[in-house]
Design a protein that fits this description.
The complex is a heterodimer.
Chain A (H helix, E strand, L loop, with lengths): L32 H10 L3 E7 L2 E6 L4 H10 L7 E8 L8 E9 L4 E9 L6 E3 L8 H12 L2 E3 L31 H10 L8 H4 L10 H8 L7
Parallel strand pairs in A: 2-5, 6-7
Antiparallel strand pairs in A: 1-2, 3-4, 4-5
Chain B lengths: L43 E5 L11 E7 L2 E8 L7 H5 L4 H9 L6 H16 L5 H30 L3 H21 L8 E2 L2 E2 L7 H23 L3 H7 L7 H6 L5 H5 L6 H4 L20 H25 L17 H4 L3 H12 L7 E9 L2 E9 L7 E5 L1 H6 L2 H5 L4 H11 L3 H5 L1
Antiparallel strand pairs in B: 1-2, 2-3, 4-5, 6-7, 7-8
The chains are: A alpha/beta, B mainly alpha.
Chain lengths: ~230, ~425
């Protein structure tokens, strides 16, 4: 990051103190100025701009994601330096594409922007990682991968985070995942009991100690197959 | 970062350097010639948690150590994962509120408020004046509870036992207040979409007034005990430093971000509940270390008392709940005697209120940082997606960055300074 990126809200903020919003319209209302700036800068890559409940959503072409986020982060007129959240939305209607959502905040300008990329069903769920721009994306993208199965290209360490590494049932927040899980309680219990409590270190961690011979047999097999975590 | 600060250390221990840090003379292999020569470059793997009192829940840290210095830290989370977000997709909006108690359980009423604000945005509801002020009072009480627990547990981690008792004594007094109001200590479920579950009982404001008059004395007591204490200073100064750019880039929020010098407070920058009309300051640190995080949280306790005084002075009368038959149940007497009210009651209980198609990301300043709820409605009575943006989760993600290069014993202090609640991280 350049040294110009240091932020002190209130210094660069536009005149006037912010106030609690009241009587926000459902659709319409004032748009975040960054949306029109994006449309001017990236033209075709900006598919749609919505203002819902006072929040501006910009739907972008996933192929241009990194360019767009990098510009929003670096451009002195935007300075979106704070990544609130990376998440995804899958609708109950199976025809609607899955949406990946980035919530960005510009602390100096006190702006909030929602970026969305639509990933059609059927195609592989892949999108670029914004980890190279925001370190905050590390765990947020891992969680999104864990819960939705979306692969973030370029993430340094994309593996499950909330569920365990050997979790077999799929991606819990997908709509085709039943509330009680894919396996029966008996099967879940059987798998839990069959787990080797010693096999609780990731391959990464085991590389720290040269203790290959002391490992449990199933870990030795996995290491021997060249298996890596998160795949 | 050049550390130019001078601290007056009153209870100084021997061996403090000019910055007030305890001097550590590293043990070199040369001074112990009896050690085997290749022993020096062997790294050790050490596992802290998931069941360890200093990890504040079921956090597991795998550390690679070179002697006593942390070379690498790999955190593991998820031991408390119960799928709150998935369950939320099968619940009506008011039914989700009890779940919000159980994520950040030290700030349960704050989560209730955040969720209700989000749902009200989705429904397009404006809450009443009295409800707004009551929610400010509840939110600040909740901040006091959370910071007190942080203070007490961090003291225990670092080795001071007395402030823990003082902090938990005061915390019980706040819980007594909350219990009188909503009937529960931790699992408050205090809000409803469009209002509160209950108005405050008679005599409650006098009890609150008694609390905010005496509570500052405890803050000063702890302040006298810790702020210039040589041991406390030695265990906290210069640890886990995050610069302003790093803290912003890592997405830290709340006291973690402000200790690094970024004055971002949701209450000031994106106000809600009329926070812009209250007179309070946002404390900001300069060094971004554990000690500054302590100072920021102590000052936030004082500022919360200021907000409580103002809120109590202006508490207006009038109804707590909005007059909106879509979301607020009619009084029982009317539901059994009037046709209209009975239909409203039936529709709300059987179908649940239905917001229009839309989405909202509503944030509040929780004691841990920016707490956000992202809700997407497809027009049915259950959200199609309910996303929690947990501040502890994002703050904890920076722990490898903060502990690497420090001593093993400092990992405990740094981890304590993040103020994590595993219920919120794992959800």
């Amino acid at each position: 990051m350049s040294d110009a990126a240091i932020v002190y809200p209130g210094v660069a903020a536009p005149a006037g103190t912010p106030v609690t919003p009241h009587n926000i319209p459902h659709r319409g209302g004032p748009e975040n100025p960054s949306a029109s700036a994006l449309a001017g800068q990236f033209k075709d890559a900006i598919k749609r701009v919505d203002v819902v409940w006072g929040e501006t959503t910009v739907v972008i072409d996933p192929a241009r994601l990194l360019d767009i986020v990098k510009w929003l982060h670096d451009d002195p007129s935007q300075r979106y330096d704070f990544l609130c959240d990376v998440t995804a939305v899958e609708f109950r209607d199976a025809d609607i594409p899955l949406e990946v959502v980035w919530h960005l905040r510009s602390l100096p300008y006190r702006r909030f922007l929602r970026l969305k990329a639509e990933l059609p069903k059927g195609a592989p769920l892949e999108v670029d990682s914004v980890w190279s721009i925001y370190k905050a994306a590390d765990w947020l993208e891992r969680e999104c991968f864990d819960m939705f199965g979306i692969k973030f290209r370029g993430h340094p360490d994309l593996r499950r985070i909330l569920m365990w590494e050997q979790y077999q049932e799929g991606y819990p927040l997908r709509k085709d995942f039943p509330l009680r899980g894919r396996f029966s309680r008996a099967e879940q219990l059987r798998q839990a009991l069959a787990q080797n409590p010693e096999a609780r270190y990731s391959m990464d961690e085991l590389s720290i100690v040269e203790a290959f011979e002391d490992l449990p047999a199933d870990m030795r097999q996995r290491l021997g197959r060249g298996e890596k975590t998160g795949e | 970062m050049a550390d130019t600060r001078t601290l007056e250390v009153e209870l100084s221990t021997t061996g403090l350097d000019a910055q007030g840090r305890p001097q550590r003379s590293p043990l070199t292999v040369a001074s112990y010639p009896a050690l085997e020569p290749d022993f020096a470059d062997e790294h050790m793997l050490i596992n802290i948690g998931p069941q360890h009192p200093a990890t504040h829940g079921v956090l597991r840290l795998v550390l690679e150590l070179d002697g006593e210095t942390v070379v690498r830290c790999i955190p593991h989370i998820g031991y408390l994962h119960c799928g709150f977000e998935k369950i939320g997709e099968y619940r009506q909006y008011n039914q989700i509120i009890p779940w919000t108690d159980r994520e950040d359980y030290l700030n349960s009423i704050g989560n209730n408020i955040a969720f209700a604000l989000g749902a009200e945005r989705l429904f397009g509801i404006e809450i009443t004046e009295r409800c707004t002020v009551l929610r400010v009072i509840a939110g600040e009480l909740s901040r006091i509870i959370s910071h007190l627990v942080w203070l007490g547990t961090t003291c225990i981690d670092i080795g001071a036992f007395t402030p823990f008792l003082w902090a938990f004594q005061e915390r019980e007094r706040v819980y007594d207040l909350l219990e009188r109001w909503v009937g529960a200590r931790l699992t408050t479920s205090a809000t409803r979409v469009g209002g509160m579950a209950a108005d405050i009982p008679d005599g409650w404001t006098a009890a609150l007034d008694g609390f905010i008059k005496t509570f500052p004395q405890t803050i000063e007591q702890v302040d006298r005990m810790l702020t210039k204490n040589g041991i406390w200073v030695g265990r906290t100064v210069g640890l886990g430093v995050m610069s302003a750019e790093e803290a912003t880039n890592y997405g830290l929020s709340g006291p973690m971000l402000r200790a690094s010098g970024v004055a971002y407070d949701v209450r000031k920058d994106f106000p809600y509940l009329g926070y812009e009309t209250y007179d309070f300051d946002v404390p900001v640190g300069t060094h971004g270390d554990v000690y500054d995080r302590y100072l920021v949280r102590m000052e936030e306790l004082r500022q919360s008392v200021r907000i409580l005084e103002q809120a109590l002075a202006r508490l207006p009368g009038g109804p707590v709940n909005v007059d909106d038959a879509r979301v607020i149940l009619p009084p029982k007497s009317k539901a059994t005697s009037e046709m209209e009210s009975m239909i409203h009651h039936f529709k709300q209980v059987m179908e649940g209120p239905r917001p229009p198609i839309g989405e909202a990301y509503v944030v509040v300043e929780s004691p841990k940082g920016e707490k956000g709820y992202y809700m997407v409605s497809d027009g049915t009575s259950k959200p199609v997606r309910w996303r929690i943006r947990p501040p502890s989760f994002v703050n904890l993600a920076a722990i490898p960055k903060m502990v690497e290069g420090h001593l093993l014993s400092d990992v405990i202090a740094i981890n304590a300074s993040i103020d994590i609640v595993m219920g919120e991280i794992d959800r």
